[in-house]
Design goal:
The protein is of the alpha+beta class. Helix content is 46%, strand content 22%.
Length: 202
């Protein structure tokens, strides 16, 4: 008995040499296209990161220049005015310039000195001598409640670091958020310092 089954066209099922080469070349071309696309995407990402770094550096440099030329003298003048006015308060404000050095490595890392001014209150005022606690917030560990630190952060924003700096909102108070250096006016600096004094002398 002879078994029979579907016939197979061996010639049709067998790829020709040209077909094999064509398939091989197509796969190589596709792989090459994928590699090229990934390289182009990586290059675009590097260009974007470089542009972002340049923009960030320019913004930070502008903020530092504004700090040196305008904000620092403004803060120091406000402290001087406060001390000359509060002659009967027993309070003396001390403004101390400083800098926080930021060093990094890798793409986008900062290597810069960020300026700051610490304003501390001392003197014979009983509120200060007895450790008067402010009403809004509590100082972080190791920080006096009778101090303000005004500084620039890595984004070029001015930061007001003190538990007594606040903004009235619908009868409530909240911490003043970081602000662009160009938005910090003399009036704002004086308001911040006046808020500080008001909490020291309730």
């Amino acid at each position: 008995m002879r078994l029979t089954g579907p016939s197979i066209d061996i010639q049709a099922a067998t790829l020709s040499k040209d077909d094999i080469m064509s398939t091989f070349e197509e796969r190589l071309a596709a792989a090459n296209d994928r590699a090229k696309s990934r390289a182009e995407t990586a290059e675009m990402q590097r260009a974007k990161e470089a542009s972002d770094r340049a923009g960030r550096a320019q913004l930070l440099n502008t903020a530092i220049s504004d700090w040196n030329d305008r904000l620092a003298p403004c803060i120091m003048a406000a402290v001087s005015t406060a001390n000359s006015t509060l002659t009967d308060s027993g309070i003396a404000l001390v403004a101390t310039p400083s800098a926080r050095h930021v060093f990094g490595s890798g793409p986008g890392a900062l290597n810069v000195s960020l300026p700051a001014i610490s304003i501390t209150a001392g003197g014979r005022n009983p509120a200060i001598r007895d450790g008067y606690q402010v009403q809004v917030g509590q100082p972080s560990s190791g920080r006096s409640p009778h101090a303000i630190v005004i500084s620039l952060n890595e984004s070029g924003f001015v930061v007001f670091d003190s538990p007594v700096i606040r903004i009235p909102t619908n009868g409530q108070s909240r911490v003043r958020p970081p602000m662009q250096a160009t938005d910090v006016s003399r009036d704002l600096v004086e308001t911040v310092l006046a808020d500080f004094i008001d909490d020291l002398i309730p």
